[in-house]
């Protein structure tokens, strides 16, 4: 378990992490989300004792990182896959880590096998591809067989096979009862991996919720309808007690409606339909809406279709329930 209490980090005037309080629990994958510059890496560095908090506290199974004896046996982390001695072989890199942390030599071959690097164990890490480097970083995190694992953007730059592998690895580690904490700026990736979500923006906590609640509250389903007899269809749907929203593009949106019911009503009244399509709002859109206010580095673009949709004021209601 990882517990944060009022965790804060200032760099001069800049408040990188602002009064964060949340708990990362065992047995599940917790996704740590936020746009670029939100403070995810700074928070993770403080969890690992690599940065000192300006205020507040973070504890690993009840203890400060600095007080852990052989910390790799408590918590394993992948922060920056490139931060290793490239001149050493994969085997020797892991052997040095094991020896300096009181971990038996036999674990080196075991973790190399787990991450699929046994065949290249004697090769120098500087010749590794990005994906092989990520696997080696993960091998280092697994070395001490820790109860807590932390991964900072582990799928960055990986091919689909690598992404699939990391996703399954995180799920299986959580299924073994471990605490798994993984940062990302991609909601779509987290939706496939995480059971719980912690979202931050400009260092502040925006949401701490189960993925199931997030999906239930944000995957609004509706039916989009286009017709040249708009007014007539509106009257008929109104009479049938169906709630309709007019979308900006001239289409009608029927919340929670069934396409069959609308199609049959239209047919009974001989109304021509040009479109009758069930829709699902994406979680990526919901995430963008939640963090829109807190994005630090906006891209300037002339393409308004890139902006998140303006409707959906209901998004965000009921969040922050852990
Ligand atoms: N050593 C530092 N000195 C000054 N400012 C810093 C330092 N480290 C981070 N920051 C600032 O703190 C904020 C949070 O940065 P951080 O790297 O933690 O965000 P992040 O959520 O991990 O972003 P990304 O997804 O881009 O990696 C940013 O505005 C960053 O510029």
From TrEMBL:
Keywords carried by this UniProt record: ATP-binding, Nucleotide-binding, Transport
Pfam families assigned to the protein according to its UniProt record, in alphabetical order: ABC_tran
Region of interest (Disordered), ranges: 300-322
Domain ABC transporter residues, every copy: 2-227
Family matches, as CDD domains: ABC_BcrA_bacitracin_resist
Single GO term (MF): ATP binding
Superkingdom in the source lineage: Bacteria
Similarity field: Belongs to the ABC transporter superfamily.
Protein name (Swiss-Prot/TrEMBL): ABC transporter ATP-binding protein
Organism: Streptomyces cylindrosporus
